[in-house]
Design a protein that fits this description.
Order of helices and strands: HH
Protein name: Gas vesicle protein
Organism: Flavobacterium sinopsychrotolerans
Shape: rod-shaped
Transmembrane segments: 6-27
Distance between the termini: 116 Å
Pfam families: YtxH
Number of strands: 0
Structural class: mainly alpha
Strand content: under 5%
Helix content: over 70%
InterPro entries: Desiccation-related_membrane (IPR052928), YtxH (IPR024623)
Length: 115
């Protein structure tokens, strides 16, 4: 069965190739014009593909630039927030240190024994 399928596919491809060849032979234009049409079609497809590539490249570049600025802004915001949090932590630690110094001073007064 696979042999019949292979033969059928081969026959269809051969028929398509023969049909295309006959179509070119009986085309109303000269061979040079037909080749020029193929070349023009190829050039148009190449130019369209190149334009799409350049457009996609430009869009991608714009997105990376935007992402870079967003990342830089986020980084600066993060540093600023960290700076404020650091100040809060330092203030808290200074208060605790002052409390500990007071407690230590009370303990030293209570434990002062004359020698």
């Amino acid at each position: 069965m696979s042999n019949n399928t292979g033969n059928t596919i081969l026959a269809v491809l051969a028929g398509a190739a023969i049909g295309a060849g006959i179509g070119i032979l009986f085309a109303p234009d000269k061979g040079s014009k037909t080749r020029e049409k193929f070349k023009d079609g190829f050039d148009d497809a190449k130019n369209e593909l190149q334009n799409k590539f350049e457009s996609a490249s430009s869009q991608l570049s714009d997105k990376f630039t935007t992402a870079k600025f967003d990342l830089e802004g986020t980084y600066e915001d993060l540093l600023s927030n960290m700076s404020y949090k650091t100040e809060e932590v330092i203030s808290f630690l200074e208060l605790k240190l002052a409390e500990l110094k007071k407690q230590n001073a009370k303990l030293q007064k209570n434990t002062d024994i004359p020698v």
